[in-house]
């Protein structure tokens, strides 16, 4: 017995270590890390060289659910309210209505193409309806690709919050199919079950998060126990909500969102602990699902699997994203990019276990098709994310920032951060700019030697400087120590060929370039951009004005454009010519332009009077 126990521990720990080490290779080649973990699990499974037998669907779902609860709690815990405010409406719409729309479109395609009933097709669409937070987070930071803040926030908040809705839909549909109620039971009972789970999940998750934040501040524990209590409280919220008929996954995410944004004791150490625990849960869940899969059964599911993946990537996901983002003034390229970043992952494979556990006739087929959809999505969308981002023009130069930033918790209520900067030749301090008193480094590392400021003398290129400062001073420190962003004029593709004064009237710009006059031609350019973007202005934002683009180069302290670039367009400009992915504002503008053009061409021409014959008297005229 002991030999079997030690062998199981040896194999399990070895797979975890191998998976963690292969992440180095994934970072180098830009591969989706989830795909690497799944492949390792497949290789270790019964059809791979490892030959490990694992076919207990209930055990896989139990372990995977625990791991997913921790991952969702960490996703909410690390979602900042700043990101949530700027992206809450579009992201939450994508995480709810977008998941339902995707499931419906996939369900119709599965019925038409492969003969599944509408209810079974909708179940398959619900299983693959949510995006994978781990894959999205990993790929958005691979290779130094910097996406515009609002687009990144929408993707991160959506991928963090859409799992509970997919889980609700899947569990409710499996219950209906197991009860053999068919499509007739889809109306009232289904709506009641989903509404009950969502309501209880929201209420108990909010209560659990508030109790968690308040309790941690009142308890006087050893530093290492705060993380243990927090994880225990998160799993307690998850289990209690599930017992009373609510969605434990939604509850644990809401609890993490509330607790992570509340001032609580031990947050710095808790975040580091959560980071490592979440990685462990992801590896365990992905390996377990890879072990459970049987690749020898995949040939029978290749055609429906790849077919559903194509429908999902090129039709269902883009259409659902477009419909959800119509009310928001997002650029066409932004909507197209969000539509492409729809990577499926371990949550979809985990949900595919439910039809097997429920004893549905096509349970194994659901699992095999879902596994192939996930593999196709990760392989195609994962490896093309960077070139698609560059082609659509949503990549911006990296912003200023420290090499590393560590939040410190000092006695009392003081909160400081330790920022570590690597001095580069073109930073202001390397050029001799004098440091103010509040920005003097506490430690300088030069050639591997630590020294104080008065011993080091003038800061040189290549130094590492360590500074203690309040979070509000970090943007000012970035301007002193970090490398400046590229000069906008040197990057005309992203920032335009010319610079404009945002205070000049928009009508003057339109008349100068023979563009249609806006309704209020006396409005300043900066205010015109702010209104077109509904108040959410970021560096790199583009606003169309006829055939030209106004681009935000810099932002002042009030959130208005301080420098505006003008792009006249070129053959190299990443622009979509499709009538898709336009927001509602652009659609109305395009419709008005089409109507004006149609009226112009339909207007009858005035008859031209014939030229009178020339006479002798007219020769002198």
Automatic annotation (TrEMBL):
The chain crosses the membrane at residues 6-26, 58-77, 89-116, 122-144, 165-186, 198-216, 246-264, 276-295, 301-325, 337-360, 366-385. Pfam families: Na_H_Exchanger. It is found in: Cell membrane. Its main location: membrane. PANTHER family: K(+)_H(+) ANTIPORTER NHAP2 (PTHR32507:SF7), NA(+)/H(+) ANTIPORTER 1 (PTHR32507). It is a multi-pass membrane protein. GO terms for molecular function: antiporter activity. The keyword Membrane applies. The keyword Membrane applies. It comes from Microvirga makkahensis. Residues 17-390 form the Cation/H+ exchanger transmembrane domain. GO terms for cellular component: plasma membrane. One of its GO terms (biological process) is proton transmembrane transport. This is Potassium/proton antiporter. Keywords: Antiport, Cell membrane, Ion transport, Membrane, Transmembrane, Transmembrane helix, Transport.
């Amino acid at each position: 017995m002991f030999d079997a126990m030690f062998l199981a521990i040896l194999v399990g720990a070895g797979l975890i270590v191998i998976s963690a080490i292969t992440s180095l290779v994934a970072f180098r080649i830009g591969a989706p890390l989830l795909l690497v973990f799944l492949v390792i699990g497949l290789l270790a499974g019964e059809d791979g060289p490892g030959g490990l037998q694992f076919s207990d669907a209930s055990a896989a779902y139990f372990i995977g659910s625990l791991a997913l609860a921790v991952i969702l709690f960490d996703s909410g815990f690390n979602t900042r309210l700043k990101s949530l405010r700027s992206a809450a409406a579009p992201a939450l719409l994508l995480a709810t209505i977008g998941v339902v729309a995707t499931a419906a479109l996939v369900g119709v395609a599965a019925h038409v193409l492969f003969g599944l009933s509408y209810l079974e097709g909708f179940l398959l669409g619900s299983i693959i309806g949510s995006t994978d937070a781990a894959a999205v987070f990993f790929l958005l930071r691979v290779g130094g690709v910097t996406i515009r803040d609002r687009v990144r926030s929408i993707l991160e908040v959506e991928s963090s919050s859409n799992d509970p809705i997919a889980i609700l839909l899947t569990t409710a549909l499996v219950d209906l199919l197991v009860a053999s109620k068919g499509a007739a039971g889809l109306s009232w009972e289904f709506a009641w079950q989903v509404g009950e789970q969502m309501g209880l999940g929201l209420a108990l998750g909010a209560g659990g998060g508030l109790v968690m934040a308040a309790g941690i501040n009142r308890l006087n524990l050893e530093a290492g126990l705060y993380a243990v209590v927090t994880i225990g409280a998160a799993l307690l919220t998850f289990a209690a909500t599930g017992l009373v008929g609510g969605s434990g996954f939604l509850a644990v995410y809401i609890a993490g969102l509330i607790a992570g944004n509340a001032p609580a004791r031990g947050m710095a150490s808790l975040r580091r602990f959560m980071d490592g625990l979440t990685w462990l849960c992801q590896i365990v869940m992905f390996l377990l699902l890879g072990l459970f899969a049987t690749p020898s059964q995949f040939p029978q599911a290749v055609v429906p699997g790849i077919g559903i993946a194509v429908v999902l990537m090129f039709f269902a996901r883009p259409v659902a994203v477009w419909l959800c983002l119509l009310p928001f003034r997002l650029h066409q390229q932004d909507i197209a990019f969000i539509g492409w970043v729809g990577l499926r992952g371990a949550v979809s494979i985990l949900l595919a276990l439910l039809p097997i556990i429920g004893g549905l006739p096509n349970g194994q087929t659901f699992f095999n098709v879902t596994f192939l959809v996930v593999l196709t999505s990760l392989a195609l969308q994962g490896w093309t994310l960077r070139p698609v981002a560059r082609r659509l023009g949503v990549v911006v130069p990296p912003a200023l920032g420290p090499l590393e930033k560590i939040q410190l918790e000092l006695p009392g209520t003081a909160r400081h951060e330790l920022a570590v900067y690597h001095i580069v030749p073109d930073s202001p301090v390397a050029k001799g700019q004098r440091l103010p008193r509040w920005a003097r480094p506490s430690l300088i590392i030069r050639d591997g030697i630590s020294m104080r400021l008065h011993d080091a003398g003038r800061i040189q290129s290549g130094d590492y400087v360590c500074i203690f400062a309040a979070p509000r001073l970090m943007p000012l420190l970035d301007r002193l120590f970090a490398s400046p962003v590229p000069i906008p004029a040197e990057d005309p593709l992203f920032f335009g060929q010319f610079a404009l004064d945002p205070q000049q009237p928009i009508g003057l710009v339109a008349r100068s370039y023979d563009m249609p006059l806006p309704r209020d031609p006396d409005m300043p350019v900066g205010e015109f951009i702010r209104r077109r973007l509904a108040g959410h202005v970021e560096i790199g934002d583009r606003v169309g004005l006829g055939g030209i683009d106004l681009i935000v180069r810099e932002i002042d302290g009030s959130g208005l454009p301080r420098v505006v670039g003008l792009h006249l367009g070129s053959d190299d400009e990443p622009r979509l010519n499709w009538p898709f992915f336009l927001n509602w504002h652009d659609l109305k503008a395009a419709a008005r332009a089409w109507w004006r053009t149609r009226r112009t061409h339909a207007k009858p021409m005035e008859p031209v009077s014939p030229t009178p014959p020339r006479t002798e008297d007219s020769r002198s005229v």
